[in-house]
Amino acid sequence: MTQHHQPPGKRIHSSLLKYGEQERKVPQYTPVPEAIQVPVIQRILSMALLNGARELVIEHAGEEYRLRLTSKGKLILTK
User: Fold this and answer.
1) Which residues pair with 47 in a beta bridge?
2) Which domain holds residue 57?
3) Which CATH number does the domain housing residue 52 bear?
């Protein structure tokens, strides 16, 4: 039995082809879009957010959150 390998960037589906009295499945390839758009994640330094302070209040959807810098240099976000 011969194994068929799927080429990269292609999706496989089958169709039926008739050879005389026999039908058999033959793989058909559908191209996949080359570029899939992925949102870019913004990156900002924590020190730029805190701007020299050890605590920052963030308002989100009418709620207040506090971003605090601990004595060990870790960040804690609380509601």
Assistant:
1) none
2) 46-78
3) 2.10.70.10
